[in-house]
């Protein structure tokens, strides 16, 4: 017989009761209302997301990465494992309770990724942080942006005004990335409209469906073309 779930903590939010539940040493759920947001026993797409977003930065000195959504820390762990020792990682998380869970009962799942000295956790809306970076004249641009939010792009995302997946938000992400920068986005299912908006914004886009059976989420990997330096040619 399976062990019963124990509620570790519940936090009231505008979208319902946010709960951390546990049974056994490594079996955790994060729920909001009756919806399961994260399951510690099913994290393959989160790991692939972090690896796909930052694997190319292993040898990039001083790499700067933005992670949107802390969750249980699996994506963050994969990001950190893909980066050099001098990297800087900003994590945008809406709820301070999630940060405390990752530093407390969830820490052993990820080797205490949330306490890594390379990271700074900001309690904020990642869309606002991206917008701020996009309008600061390029002072805080990122080599990669990795979005691991419990609602990924979907067919009902407003094509222009969605704060994360609409064309305006994509332009902000483009402006917040360095030339050649990469955007990796988790989705529950493939969304053709989001794919097309990324391409229209100048990204080269591929998708991955991690795993071989059961529920297979999608990872969008979108890269900007690097800016080529050009010089004036002497007249002939």
Report on this model:
A hairpin with a 3-residue loop joins strand 2 and strand 3 (27-32). The chain has 6 helices and 11 strands. Helix 1 (44-54) packs parallel to helix 2 and helix 4 (126-134) crosses helix 5 (167-176). A 7-stranded mixed β-sheet has the order 7-6-5-8-9-11-10, with helices on both faces. The protein has a 4-stranded antiparallel β-sheet with strand order 1-2-3-4, with no helix packed on it. By secondary structure, the chain is α/β, with parallel strands linked by helices. The model is unreliable at 229-236 (pLDDT under 50).
Main beta sheet: 7 strands, mixed
* N-C termini distance: 84 Å
Strand order of the largest sheet: 7-6-5-8-9-11-10
Mean pLDDT value = 92
- Stretches with pLDDT under 50, minimum 5 residues: 229-236
The helical percent reads 10-25%
The count of strands amounts to: 11
Which key features would you list for this structure?
236 residues, alpha/beta, seven-stranded mixed sheet, 31% strand, disordered C terminus
Task: Provide a compact summary of the structure.
The protein has 236 residues and is an alpha/beta fold.
Question: What are the SSEs and their pairings?
Answer:
Blueprint: E1 6-13, E2 16-23, E3 27-32, E4 35-39, H1 44-54, E5 64-68, H2 74-81, E6 88-93, H3 96-103, E7 119-123, H4 126-134, E8 142-147, H5 167-176, E9 177-187, H6 192-200, E10 203-208, E11 218-224
Parallel strand pairs: 5-6, 5-8, 6-7, 8-9
Antiparallel strand pairs: 1-2, 2-3, 3-4, 9-11, 10-11
